[in-house]
Amino acid sequence: MAYTTSYDGSNSGFQVGQNLGHITNQFLQPETSLNQACLRDLRTTDPYHDKDRIQNTNGGLLKDSYCWILDSKEFQQWQDDESNCLLWIRGDPGKGKTMLLCGIIDELTRLFGDTANISYFFCQATDVRINNATAILRGLIYSLVEKQIKWIVSSRNWPDIEERLDTTQTAPISLELNEASVSEAVSKFIQHKVRSLAKVKKYSDETRETIWHHLSSNSQGTFLWVALVCQELDRTPRRHALKKLETFPSGLNALYSRMIDQVRNLEDAEPCKRILAVMSIVYRPVAFDELASLVDLPDNLSDDSEALSEVIGVCGSFLTVREDTIIFVHQSAKEFLLKERQNVVFPGGIEAEHHTVFSRSLQAMSKTLRRDIF
């Protein structure tokens, strides 16, 4: 005689069986393995690794560029008042929202240590894995403890976002309304970047002061503008630094316009424009070795990884390569190409570019895939 009893409660998966006097206990699906499977399903990317990657991509986190917000009345109100559950940091592209959040996370982690669980998730519009509401919820649940959560959200100054978040339980911080604090933070960022450039390039005191003055006068309180200009100066021989400096216009969009005009005058203008076109429409970052399959390039480029790296490097500072993956330096760079320079990047239209990528993807697959004879 034999019998089997199953339990569907908290010990789901546990069975007891008796057969010919022998008793066996079998754990078909231990609860720990179920928990691990749940975590694997929730995790699209690791938020902690995303934070490190973002900081490294932006050249590291400078404390002087974010510490101002810790002393703001809105932040302290959010931190101390239990009725204020949401701190909303909003600002235009390139104002330093992401790095501001990285700094806040570090400071809260240092302040509370193991006494509180600090959960976070970084969205990136260019990465399909982490650019939607479902991914956000999955990422937060992955690292969330239900005991307490206060929330920090950053966004652009979009009316539809303001409509949803502008409530009495929200402590909003507008970077535009805190212009003095942001400007001071940008000024410290400029000092840091110029000091580093001067050390590497061995600028004279006069050259260093001229660069500092130009950046301070034209940055318009935008970290990204400063970073892009300093990146260009880092590639420029010391003797041409001041002449190069005069070519940088004030404002982010004006700088992007100058960058795309430079691309059009390059010897490798056509390959650059093709690469920018593909990168502007793909739904995720492209691995370096995938690019040749997606972009119609001359043979001397598609078969030469070193030469291809050089072309990507001169694509007007729109793109960068991190861990063998090609990404935009900032979402605003992609938006500029899609909205302001479609005629340059997509002479045949965006739809035609989608069709080209689709066709080339099929061609690439046909080289390796074979029909199943069964």
TrEMBL record:
- Spell out the InterPro entries in the cross-references: GPIID_WHD, NPHP3-like_N, P-loop_NTPase
Gene3D superfamilies for the chain: P-loop containing nucleotide triphosphate hydrolases
Domain of life of the organism in this record?
Eukaryota
Q: Which Pfam families match?
A: NPHP3_N, WHD_GPIID
Residues in the signal sequence: none
Q: Which UniProt keywords apply?
A: Repeat
Residue ranges constituting the GPI inositol-deacylase winged helix domain according to the UniProt record: 272-343
Report the residue ranges that make up the Nephrocystin 3-like N-terminal domain in this protein.
66-152
What is the recorded name of this protein? Answer: NACHT domain-containing protein
Lineage here is: Eukaryota, Fungi, Dikarya, Ascomycota, Pezizomycotina
